[in-house]
Design brief:
This protein is of the alpha+beta class and about 290 residues long. The chain has eight helices and five strands. The chain has three domains: about 1-90, no CATH class; about 100-140 and about 220-280, no CATH class; about 150-195, no CATH class. The protein is about 55% helix and about 10% strand.
């Protein structure tokens, strides 16, 4: 009797475990609403387990079992490969979406910066992309060249008298404006002799967008180097951002720049995402992503 049980265990133990495993995976796939490839793989696995049990019983023709076994095996391998490929493709899609989204946000931020500079210098926003690019390529901006630091002390009575022309009490540490004024005094204090703040006109693109820190930040984010010619275009798309400007109440210049992203946040979704900054209903240049 013991011998018969031992034989049965050796004969059916592995197929039985295989069937149980296949059944559990099959139930898990359908109950947790896994994707079609996972469900199909679980079906092939369960079928292969059944065929293994049938083969062990010896009651079915080996040839038929072999044919069915090879078929289910090939099917299982194929679906497993497709399942892995689907996961890999999804990961690549998510990475591409993240980079595209970061580039869109950064480019809109750069467009906003340049448009604000245009407004400051021309009392209006650039109304077309040609006007925008022409300005961006030749624009300059203020750059404060700083030499020296503000002394960590209060002004003396004579220094305060020179700066403010009165006898007000000196009860606070020296400010940068006070230090700058004193640095131009004929009786300049010793700790301010090398102090200076000079405002220079520098090239916008070279100073702001081609600086080492800015370029490094873009490279770390994976969005590549700055290219002013690409700013009008939505990343990964051939279409341009929609640029709108107008005069609002009291002739205040208003702007809105935005567009629809070419990729959706969820792969396969039909819901398109729009991203923008500014509004034509008020003096607000905030970004939708902020």
């Amino acid at each position: 009797m013991t011998s018969n049980i031992s034989v049965l265990l050796k004969k059916y133990a592995v197929p039985a475990i295989f069937i149980l495993l296949g059944f559990v995976i099959l139930i898990y796939g359908f109950k947790t609403n896994q994707d079609g490839l996972f469900k199909l793989s679980s079906v092939f696995l369960f079928a292969a387990a059944i065929l293994s049990f049938m083969y062990s019983s010896g009651k079915f023709k080996a040839g038929l079992i072999n044919i069915l076994g090879v078929s289910t095996g090939i099917g299982a391998v194929f679906t497993i490969y497709m399942s892995f490929k689907s996961v890999s493709d999804s990961q690549k899609y998510n990475i591409s979406y993240k980079i595209m989204r970061l580039e869109a946000e950064q480019n809109l931020s750069d467009i906003r910066f340049i448009q604000k500079l245009h407004l400051n210098q021309n009392k209006k926003y650039a109304g077309t992309w040609d006007e925008f690019l022409t300005f961006a390529k030749g624009a300059t901006m203020d750059y404060v060249k700083s030499v020296g630091t503000v002394p960590a002390r209060k002004m003396t009575a004579s220094e305060s008298q020179y700066v403010y022309k009165d006898n007000r009490p000196v009860d606070k540490s020296m400010t940068e404006m006070e230090a700058l004024t004193l640095s131009k005094w004929s009786n300049v204090p010793a700790d301010l002799k090398s102090f200076s703040r000079d405002t220079l006109q520098v090239n916008l693109i070279k100073t702001k967008f081609e600086s080492g820190s800015y370029t490094e930040a873009r490279m770390i984010a994976g969005i590549g180097k700055f290219d002013v010619e690409k700013l009008p275009f939505i990343p990964l798309a051939k279409t341009k951002w929609n640029l709108e400007t107008k005069l609002g109440a009291d002739n205040v210049p208003l702007i809105r720049v935005g567009g629809t992203l070419p990729m959706t946040k969820v792969e396969g979704s039909k819901a398109k995402e729009e991203i923008w900054f500014g509004t034509l209903s008020g003096n607000d240049t905030g970004g939708s992503w902020e």
